[in-house]
Each structure stands twice: as C-alpha cells, then as structure tokens.
Design a protein that fits this description.
The chain is an alpha/beta fold and 196 residues long. The protein contains nine helices and five strands. A five-stranded parallel beta sheet has the order 2-3-1-4-5, with helices on both faces. The longest helix has 29 residues. The radius of gyration is 18 Å and the shape is globular. The protein binds adenosine-5'-diphosphate (ADP). The site of adenosine-5'-diphosphate has 15 residues, from helix 1, helix 6 and helix 9.
C-alpha cells in the first residue's frame, strides 16, 4: 500500500485537493483532526499540557483553552518547542498506528495523509511519496482574503512564519501547480492517479 503525504502552505489548495480525493473515494487521514482529537477533555495529552503550561490552559468545562495556550507559546520559543514536541510525537504515533490498521485491512492500494506540517513534524520521512500543493504568494493571498476575509498584512505574516515554498518544493516528489483553475488542478491529480 502506497502512503502519500499531502502538504502545502496556507492558501495553496491543500483542502481543495483533499476534498477532491475524498469525493473520488480515496482514504485520507487528516492530521489536523487527529491533533484536535488528542486534546479532547480528559485526554492524557491535556493532562501533559496542563503539567507543562499550568492548569490555566484548561477551561471550566474541561476543554483546552486554545487562546490561552496560544498566548503562552507564541511569546516564548522554548515553550512552543515543548508544545510541538509533545503534540507532534503523539500525532505521529497515532498516524503510524492508523496506517498499520489500514494496511492490515488490505482494502486500499493507496492512502493519503493530509498534513499541513508534513515536513515540520518529520512525517515526510515515513511516507512513500510527497505531494505538494503550490501557488505563488499573490495568488494565495487573494484566495485567502476571499476565503477568510483576513487582511493582507495578517496573511503575509502567516505565510512568512511558515517554511518557504522553495524549501517545500525541494523536498516534494510531486508539485501540484495550483496557479490555474480548479479543473486544471483536478486534471493533474487524474494524471498522477494513472501512475498509481
Ligand atoms: P489550503 O487548504 O491550502 O489553505 P484551500 O484549498 O482552502 O487552501 O484554497 C484556498 C481558497 O482558494 C479556497 O477558498 C479555495 O476554494 C480556493 N481555491 C483553491 N484552488 C483554487 C483555484 N485553482 N482557483 C480558484 N480558487 C481556488
């Protein structure tokens, strides 16, 4: 079974590709969803986070106070590293477990892992192939402005906080060029599917 890691910077079209793959009937593991599941109320991870960053990060109803945690880690590099270390380790463990389960089912020839932080977590080292959605910064900015109503300044800040396009391109096996329309993006995927 082939495991394809799908990644891409903000606004590059990663969700558009994921939606298309799901509609085409492919199995897609969602790393962001796993990241949300592991911090549900009462989870082991939430206990670990509370011991690292204080009980103040848990709301009265037992859920994670994301805003509070964000304030703590974004002003302190070491704390951000601690958080990423804890979260990424657990996310990788779970993804590996799920890949094993799916492999044992022998139902799929290929599965995808939708992982915005594929490279940053090191997950790219354990996939068979890396697909990157890519578009120039201006196209991404225009699309995110239309999608989220965020300001250009805020989007530029987010883009510059991420790994650069060039770094990602150099690590990818396949680059899905999303500067054209969605149809052209889907055609690229169909071409790749023929080779799987
Ligand atoms: P990401 O998941 O990488 O942040 P999305 O797939 O959400 O990016 O795409 C960002 C926005 O741009 C979405 O609103 C999406 O519908 C739109 N979009 C994506 N690809 C195209 C395209 N080829 N042409 C026009 N709009 C697009």
């Amino acid at each position: 079974m082939k495991v394809i890691g799908l990644t891409g910077g903000i606004g590059s079209g990663k969700s558009t590709v994921t939606d298309y793959l799901i509609a085409r009937g492919f199995h897609v593991l969602d790393a962001d969803q796993i990241a949300r599941e592991i911090v549900l109320p009462g989870s082991e991870m939430l206990i670990q986070l509370a011991s690292a960053f204080g009980r103040g990060i848990i709301l009265e109803d037992g859920s994670l106070d994301r805003k509070k945690l964000g304030e703590i880690v974004f002003s302190d590099r070491e704390k951000k590293k601690t958080l990423d270390g804890l979260m990424h380790t657990r996310i990788l463990e779970l993804i590996h477990e799920r890949i094993l389960q799916i492999r044992e089912e022998r139902k799929h020839k290929v599965i995808f892992i939708d992982a915005p932080l594929l490279f940053e977590t090191g997950l790219h080292k354990s996939v068979s192939e890396i697909w990157l959605t890519d578009a120039d910064d201006e196209t991404r900015i225009q699309r995110i402005m239309a999608r989220d109503g965020m300001s250009r300044e805020e989007i530029e800040k987010r883009i510059s906080a991420q790994m650069t396009r060039e770094e990602k391109q150099s690590l990818a096996d396949v680059i899905l060029d999303n500067t054209g329309d969605q149809e052209s993006l889907y055609q690229q995927i169909e071409q790749l599917m023929k080779k799987i």
